[in-house]
Specification:
Number of strands: 16
Order of helices and strands: HHEEEEEEEEEEEEEEEE
Number of helices: 2
Strand order of the largest sheet: 1-6-7-10-11-12-13-14-15-16
Shape: elongated
Distance between the termini: 66 Å
């Protein structure tokens, strides 16, 4: 029994020593293992950038506790536990301290080095090169077909013949149009990111017209300048114009054809752009951002860009003519519509590089430069049709070209909290050897073949404002 009492006493003393040693050990709270870092810098190392820093911020080990000499004997003071003398073992998931303050949003990850999904969207405001040039489409006056109009002979032109409508009136000035861009991507743990995004610009529209009211100073006593004339030829009787009298004093159809002695002519040019891209961003070189030990040192990164790009340029020139009788009546059979469509879906792989500079406080600047050689599958369509779409003529052509492209994209980034980023930027795109129709109208009704030419350069530029979310 005495031995059992002694054993119990030893066990009790050992338990007390163990408890005292545990009480002196530092608390292993992972949020305190590293010095405070710029919390936004964690996002800079996150999904939308190519290479996150993989170095943990670990504290230096503390000094060993010395022995104290008490009285005449050599009695060492109690030592700290062995575990407290070594640097804390930090798991990879604990390399980055938690955000401060913590925002209740279901974004980001406590282990950004493992990668993850991200989503971004942008509002864009861009403009395109308008290829339309000078071409006279309608003049003031009319042509007497049968000579029944008083004071005329067959084939005589009556009126000033001054330009009433010109294609260049629908050529600008250039205008910015709104659009949007959506992207979905994934960052791998080796720093490589893959993103699929889509850009759409809404239609840019340019319009002009001429009616029976001529400009000041052009109204003549015989009212000939209230009419419009366009030199369309080779058209069938389906486009002869109103059955009744259209010019006072003449016989029915004395000015034969919808385009002869017309009252209204309107031109409209539209263009839009769609763009798909699968992009890979590959880290090449970087320097660490260290706001604690070297706050004047900026974070710099260089990365490569590659992927596949599809750009679709679509343009349409439309010309609408209305020929009314002397009472102002006109039906669908008295309307002629001409259109010239150039559709250019382009496909190609691209290569490039990007540069990024992080200034701290959640602010970074990036510049991306890429080049691509497209295969351009061009579709060219010229068409005449009546207003009721019952009769007309059409000519279509296919063409294949190589269209190089150069693009520069500048962005200023701001990371207010973890998992959310904002950016504003400017984009410049130059596409070469595209197809355009600067003089869009061919007046030969039977075989419309306007001049489709290789345009030296086409510029697309504008601004973007966006937000991104990292999961």
């Amino acid at each position: 029994m005495e031995e059992m009492g002694i054993m119990r006493t030893r066990i009790g003393w050992l338990a007390l020593v163990l408890i005292a040693g545990m009480a002196q050990a530092p608390a292993a709270v992972w949020g305190q293992e590293a010095p405070a870092a710029d919390p936004v810098h964690r996002l800079f190392a996150g999904a939308l950038h190519p290479a996150a820093p993989e170095t943990a911020l670990e504290p230096e080990p503390g000094p060993l506790a010395p022995a104290d000499y008490l009285g005449d004997g050599l009695i060492p003071a109690p030592l700290a536990p062995v575990d407290s003398l070594l640097p804390p073992r930090v798991a990879r998931g604990q390399e980055v301290p938690p955000p401060d303050p913590v925002f209740p949003v279901p974004l980001y990850s406590p282990r950004p080095e493992l990668g993850g999904f991200f989503f971004d969207m942008e509002f864009v405001f861009m403009r395109q090169t308008n290829p339309i040039k000078n071409q006279t489409i309608a003049v003031r006056g009319f042509q007497s077909t049968d000579g029944s109009i008083p004071g005329t002979v067959p084939g005589q032109f009556v009126g000033s013949g001054l330009d009433a409508l010109n294609a260049k009136q629908a050529s600008g000035p250039g205008t910015f149009v709104p659009g949007y861009r959506f992207g979905l991507g994934y960052r791998f743990r080796n720093g490589v990111t893959a993103e699929l995004w889509y850009l759409h610009l809404f239609n840019a529209r340019f319009q002009a017209g001429a009616t029976l009211a001529p400009p000041p100073g052009q109204l003549d006593p015989a009212l000939a300048n209230t009419f419009l004339f366009s030199p369309v030829f080779n058209f069938p009787t389906d486009f002869a114009g109103p059955l009744g009298v259209d010019v006072a004093g003449g016989a029915p159809r004395a000015a034969y054809g919808i385009w002869n002695a017309a009252e209204e002519e309107i031109i409209k040019f539209e263009q839009r752009l769609d763009r798909w891209e699968l992009r890979f961003r590959i880290p090449i070189w970087e320097t660490d951002y260290d706001p604690v030990h070297n706050p004047d040192k900026l974070g710099l990164r260089l990365y490569g860009l590659c992927g596949f790009r599809h750009t679709w340029l679509w343009e349409r020139f439309q010309w609408r003519v209305v020929d009314r009788d002397i009472n102002g009546a006109a039906g669908p059979e008295d309307v002629a519509i001409y259109s010239n469509v150039v559709s250019q879906p382009m496909y190609g792989g691209f290569l490039g590089w990007g540069f990024e500079k992080y200034f701290g406080h959640g602010v970074a600047l990036t510049m991306d430069l890429t080049g691509v050689g497209y295969i351009n599958f061009v579709r060219e369509i010229a068409r005449y049709e009546r207003g009721d779409e019952q009769v007309g003529s059409k000519r279509a052509n296919r063409e294949y070209t190589i269209a190089p492209e150069l693009q520069a994209h500048f962005n200023l980034w701001w990371y207010p909290i973890e998992g959310i980023q904002f950016r504003v930027g400017y984009d410049v795109i130059g596409i070469f050897n595209t197809i355009a129709s600067p003089e869009p109208v061919d007046f030969n009704f039977t075989a419309p073949a306007p001049r489709w030419e290789h345009k030296a350069a086409r510029l697309i530029d504008g601004f973007n404002v966006g937000v991104g979310f990292i999961f």
